[in-house]
Amino acid sequence: MRLIRIVILVLLVISGVYYLLDEYKLLPDGTVEDLNHTLKQKDSKLETKEIPTERSAMPYAGDIFQWVGKEADALTEKFGKPKRKDLSTYGYEWWVYTDGKENYIQFGIDNNTVKTLYAAGSGLSLDPIQMGQNYDSVKEKLSFSKEVTYSKDFSSFSFQLSDEERAARPLVKVTDNIFMQLYFDTYTNKLTGVRVLTGDILLLHRPYKMKYRGDLPEKPAATESEQEQIDTGMEQQIFHLTNVFRNQHGKQKLKWDDTVRDVAYIHSKDMAENNYFSHYGKDGNGLKERLASKEVAYMSAGENIAAQYPDAQAAMHGWLNSEGHREALLKNDYTHLGTGVYKSYYTQNFVKKQ
Fold first, then answer.
1. Beta-bridge partner residues of 317
2. pTM of the predicted model, to two decimals?
């Protein structure tokens, strides 16, 4: 009987030890973590959705989509030296690759890593979609929602798209942290451009209305010298992209004109500094007077202006989808172009020379 009691006591002790060990988890460094506390934290996070379910890797097969997250050195190995390296408003550097006619692509580099890209033109690998593809057929492959969400740490963001925005530039969630904007020509209903970007950069651009909980990141402040470089870069981006769009519509390539650029820049700066938006300055002068002041000889001329777009690429698609601006952008008679950018004000001056 005494032996039985000893056995029972030993069994109780063993079970008690097992219970104690089951309540805790031994970490690799030998410390002990309270499992009950950890489980309560997990329950809280699941209830508040602070830790979203991770999605799989990039689901699209096209080469373009795979570049986000890659090291910048891989770009030079694949594409060679970029045509330009331009500062951006958002802290990253644009590496621009274009032949100035058929293909245009630029990669946003931050900390030697590709964080965003924009592409237009032909011959680009965008599988399962294609540049120039009809809106409805793209929509069949991708979901164009009115609301697209993004979560990071303890913050959540919801982008609200209007019907007009979904028709011209829908937003698609590719992974939990990668998004795609598709730019459609609303006159032909064809895909003309694609932008792929991380959630953090999307928040900096803020291209749609948002509902959010948490803190919004602030756009980095640029020095006067940096802003000049940013503006000069966007001027050249608009010039090259204009010729790519014109080529797609069978129009002749435009030549760059420095003097016409100065006329355009002066108008952009004047609009920004005097807080107005018009083809006519507060002195009543229009494009005719501005070109005359710089002694520009021309046979005909036209002007496009834009303001408050996130960047040059967004402004270009805005012009393409506006009837009057589109007419100037694609007019076959013009021979030269000068583009002037001052902060978030954009001016294109087209002229026909003999």
1. none
2. 0.82
